[in-house]
Amino acid sequence: MSTPEDHTADHNSSKPSRRSLIGWGGAGLALGAAAAGGAVAVARTGGDADPAGAAAGGPVAFHAAHQAGIATPVQDRLHFAAFDVKTDDRAEFATMLKDWTAAARRMTAGKAVGEGAYGGLAEAPPDDTGEALGLKPSRLTLTIGFGPSLFGRFGLADRRPEALVDLPRFAGDNLDGARSGGDLCVQACADDPQVAVHAIRNLARIGFGKVSVRWSQLGFGKTSSTTPEAQTPRNLMGFKDGTRNIAGTETDRLRKYVWVAESDGPDWMTGGSYLVARRIRMHIEPWDRTSLQEQEDIFGRDKGEGAPVGKAKERDEPFLKAMLPDAHVRLAHPDSNGGATILRRGYSFTDGTDGLGRLDAGLFFLAYQRDVREGFIPIQRNLATDALNEYIQHVGSAVFAVPPGVRDADDWWGRALFSASPTEG
Amino acid sequence: MSTPEDHTADHNSSKPSRRSLIGWGGAGLALGAAAAGGAVAVARTGGDADPAGAAAGGPVAFHAAHQAGIATPVQDRLHFAAFDVKTDDRAEFATMLKDWTAAARRMTAGKAVGEGAYGGLAEAPPDDTGEALGLKPSRLTLTIGFGPSLFGRFGLADRRPEALVDLPRFAGDNLDGARSGGDLCVQACADDPQVAVHAIRNLARIGFGKVSVRWSQLGFGKTSSTTPEAQTPRNLMGFKDGTRNIAGTETDRLRKYVWVAESDGPDWMTGGSYLVARRIRMHIEPWDRTSLQEQEDIFGRDKGEGAPVGKAKERDEPFLKAMLPDAHVRLAHPDSNGGATILRRGYSFTDGTDGLGRLDAGLFFLAYQRDVREGFIPIQRNLATDALNEYIQHVGSAVFAVPPGVRDADDWWGRALFSASPTEG
């Protein structure tokens, strides 16, 4: 499914702000990046609000102040993977990150991983697995994150950001360790699922021996929108949720709630963000036997239009006091959480059955924020009394520090983290 | 991803043949169906070659001589579910099949399951789960099949078709019982995965207490094409496989290899077909470390273009003797199997990880044929020596009798099977 919002370019992103130049290390560097990054980067480099997305099917810029895949208009499909590190060799790991960056630069541009993918040496393994040959770039974005456990390795302990806290245990959590955590993660979003699956698979291939896939999640359909003109996609409960999401064009809100500022520290995270991933299983069978009135009371919206209680339209300002005290919209609203605001980017999943005749389906929740302690944690604490909890359960959880964007052809994922560390140069 | 082939209407389908009229029970009935079936049926009813698919995003006819979802141009996404029967009450089960049929008729037309889905009684559960509200019909097709085990119930033993054999054990099979078999199945194909997931979920909801989901499979991308003008989509090994598939427009080949003829028996299967479903796990990590030459030798095609060994283009006639004796294309070719030919309709899947750091990914193989004993079984037996077997493993298996299409608004899935049974009317 391709919706109109996918093709909305962010015209606000063309004017770099002072802050974006700081994020890039200065104007000279920013301009250099545009020159060095090739055609793709030239076309869409230099924004503060992040490259918002290219024309239909086209590439999203890889070189930018912030990583793409956050403020970028939400693509239709997701493949997300968390990795465990298998090497103790810091140089080997850094080399893998460089190789990953080079591969990501090519894949997001719609190219095969290697230059001569199928004109190369027949006796060598192909340098691309091939299943995306002939497919469009499909607005592929690849977004890397570093988990708390990574900082227990490679002499990185004192580089761990304060804001990268281990998530507390929340009421109702029923977490599966095999679907939680990870030393690092890559979020692949694209309008064509084959393009997203191909990207994760090729990174796993390149990382062979250095990392292994800890868990992965396919998201078949987006449940959030970062383009306010579009309707919010429905989740598997049939409701529009997260209507008041931060838009990719809302530079001020992104700066306030999503991007790590220089003053936040550490330096290597300036222009980055923090990602919380939660696998939320929905008990859809009991939900489906719940009356329409109760469903609407639980959400605080009507099901057909998605309007808040007592209002006519989805985007009408909600009147929280008209809702039940434990209505989902009411409890999740910034006014109930001291203003806590996150950028949501979740996807619906269905992973077969649970062995008990029920579909294993739900929401793979992804939220970006400037500080997890002021974003997801207070919101989720407040949702402890959410009426929705009778019908959902959090079964997987992870948190990652998402570094800023790759600046130019010489930059690589994690360079600032690894270069500035006391144990290496 | 939407490809040009999706929008190809089958202009050959507008002229009913004698055989299709027999399948429909006579011309009067056929015309009656067109009148009774509403706008959708009127638009595309009466073909022998099956409704080939509507215009972009539009509905595919539900009322037809054959079930849609077989010769229909392959949609982008799949949700497939196998069900176990939980009731011993034959009338209750037949009522459920009628309810399923009514729901399928509406959903394939792009409508909610119930008339007044969200204008109904607030104190009742909604008669549609809602997540497909506002989405296009997306060429949704719903195709039902009856497994061998169903015929052990409801006094149907003597109605079991001879051709519905239990599959033999094949060399290399490593079947998971929890992902095999099933009393019945529904294949949902659509260009929007949310539409396919919604359809299966609502059938499961309607069937609550009567059936439960035994296993289900999401297919994120098609690997076959039934429209010869389009390129064959690549599988997760990066190859085009099944290039010489039966096209939805090849009426003669469909009649010869796919549709059950009146002379084949039993009567209730005339115009139906047999479906073999196999979950084929790919060991993609070792595959990715195999040289390009070896990969191409194993398939008998080049990877870039997909041309058979020694040929220039994908659709050039393969010269089998130029290939290694155990090349996949050579062993799967009709010339190596006494002419055995099947219609392939498989999808790629990726279902997270296997707990060993590897992606659980592969091909969900779906093949339709007039007789399993002359289709899948000889082909799969011949593939015992397939060089590809080092890199794949069959881990799930099922076979189903797929009855003919629903004729009109009064007809329902399985009517001929249940009505003609000795223990009822």
TrEMBL record, chains A, B:
Signal peptide (UniProt feature, chain positions): none
Keyword Transferase among UniProt keywords: no
Subcellular location: Cell envelope
Catalytic activities: heme b + 2 H(+) = protoporphyrin IX + Fe(2+)
Keyword match Cytoplasm: no
Record-listed E.C. numbers: 1.11.1.-
Annotated PROSITE patterns: DYP_PEROXIDASE (PS51404), TAT (PS51318)
One of the Pfam families matching this protein, by short name: Dyp_perox_C
One GO cellular component, as annotated: cytosol
Sequence ranges assigned to domain Dyp-type peroxidase N-terminal in this UniProt record: 67-220
GO molecular function term, any single one: heme binding
Keywords per UniProt: Heme, Iron, Lyase, Membrane, Metal-binding, Oxidoreductase, Peroxidase, Signal, Transmembrane, Transmembrane helix
Free-text remark on how the cofactor is bound: Binds 1 heme b (iron(II)-protoporphyrin IX) group non-covalently per subunit.
Spans through the membrane: 21-43
GO biological process per UniProt: iron import into cell
Main enzyme class: oxidoreductase
SUPFAM superfamilies: Dimeric alpha+beta barrel (SSF54909)
Entry cofactors: heme b
Domain Dyp-type peroxidase C-terminal: 232-406
Family assignment from sequence similarity: Belongs to the DyP-type peroxidase family.
Function comment: Involved in the recovery of exogenous heme iron. Extracts iron from heme while preserving the protoporphyrin ring intact.
Protein name: Deferrochelatase
Gene: efeB
